[in-house]
Recover the amino acids of this structure.
């Protein structure tokens, strides 16, 4: 998180305490009950002991609620009487605070990140092979997700592609194009679809997955098109929350920094300054609602250091982190989200396929450069 965000939040809390803190002091010290020094000491000591006990038992409690409860106890045990309306108001407010945190959207409910899934990709692949009479054959070690389908169309148009005979997915075709040990799945658009295919690819023998997707410009890094090597992605979709808990952070990072550094080095070799295709490394914003990219959301993403918006990276990196898989994501920034009429969404030669193949080749070289290990995410099934 940028330091200025931390500083601004702390400043806001301090300003709120200065402006409204006296009302809390007046209510707790006078309106709930009139405290003598001895009573104040007893109330604070009781509250402190309650907090220590709750912490030791692992129970989440509020220090404000605990302190106010101590004052209420003094009022009901013979201290100076005050109108009960104040106690009733505070009780209702605290009850509301206790109930509201438990009201969560279904996306965040009933999650046990340590449990295995009942339905596994191996189950679907087994049944698809049985129904279609397909051989039990592994896919190549290097696989590519091509959400726009440009690479697949380019390969078939140039007669450089053929269907992979052992791919048992109900939803996609796997095209073997003239990559070294590589195949491409086209049109897997969006986080849920991309991760569904990724699960099945790794269950089928994939060892390294590359995703290269069209993206919209957030930070002004020059005129599109250009390439961003995604090192972290803002989680504004639902799929990543099935693999990593919210506590893992708003951003999910590429899970293997060694591989990422190798890919960056190969990428800069493949695209020198004279190539005409700028290369950047940074963060993206993963959304599953492209037509809800509002001005407020765009401004917030830019404030968090985001370079571009796309639809898959956060989910793929969450999957990779949880499953111990090697995944690298790229954003091919090709547009300004339609804000520049007339020449937006221009991808370059062969609808961007030529650039994409050079990116894939660089990533594949980095993967083949040596053995890689991936740290497991604590507490999650791998």
């Amino acid at each position: 998180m940028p330091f200025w965000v931390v500083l601004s939040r702390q400043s806001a809390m301090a300003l709120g305490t200065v402006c409204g803190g006296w009302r809390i002091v007046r209510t707790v010290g006078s309106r709930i009950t009139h405290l003598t020094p001895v009573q104040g000491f007893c109330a604070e000591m009781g509250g402190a002991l309650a907090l220590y006990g709750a912490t030791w038992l692992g129970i989440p409690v509020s220090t404000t609620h605990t302190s106010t409860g101590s004052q209420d106890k003094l009022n009901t045990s013979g201290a100076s009487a005050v109108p009960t309306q104040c106690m009733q108001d505070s009780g209702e407010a605290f009850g509301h605070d206790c109930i509201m945190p438990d009201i969560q959207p279904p996306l965040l409910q009933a999650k046990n990140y340590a449990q295995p899934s009942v339905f596994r990709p191996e189950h679907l692949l087994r049944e698809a092979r049985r129904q279609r009479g397909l051989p039990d054959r592994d896919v190549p070690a290097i696989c590519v997700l091509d959400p726009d389908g440009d690479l697949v169309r380019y390969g078939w148009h140039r007669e450089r592609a053929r269907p992979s005979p052992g791919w048992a997915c109900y939803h996609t075709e796997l095209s073997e194009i003239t990559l070294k040990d590589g195949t491409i799945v086209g049109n897997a658009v969006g986080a849920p679809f991309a991760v569904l295919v990724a699960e099945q690819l790794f269950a089928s023998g994939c060892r390294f997955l590359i995703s290269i997707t069209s993206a919209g410009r957030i930070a002004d890094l020059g005129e599109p098109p250009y390439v961003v090597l995604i090192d972290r992605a803002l989680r504004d979709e639902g799929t990543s929350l099935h693999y990593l808990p919210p506590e893992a952070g708003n951003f999910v990072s590429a899970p293997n920094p060694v591989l990422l550094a190798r890919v960056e080095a190969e990428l800069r070799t493949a695209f020198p300054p004279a190539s005409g295709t700028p290369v950047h490394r940074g963060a993206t914003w993963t959304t599953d609602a492209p037509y809800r990219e509002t001005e407020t959301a765009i401004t917030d993403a830019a404030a968090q250091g985001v370079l571009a918006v796309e639809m898959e990276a956060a989910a793929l990196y969450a999957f990779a982190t949880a499953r111990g898989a090697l995944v690298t994501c790229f954003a091919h920034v090709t547009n300004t989200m339609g804000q520049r009429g007339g020449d937006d969404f221009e991808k370059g030669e062969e609808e961007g396929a030529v650039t994409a193949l050079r990116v894939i080749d660089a990533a594949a070289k980095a993967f083949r450069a040596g053995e890689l290990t991936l740290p497991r995410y604590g507490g999650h099934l791998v």
Remarks:
- The radius of gyration is 27 Å.
- The first helix runs from residue 3 to 31.
- The longest strand covers residues 226-236.
- The beta strands are 142-146, 161-163, 174-177, 182-186, 208-217, 226-236, 251-253, 279-287, 306-310, 327-335.
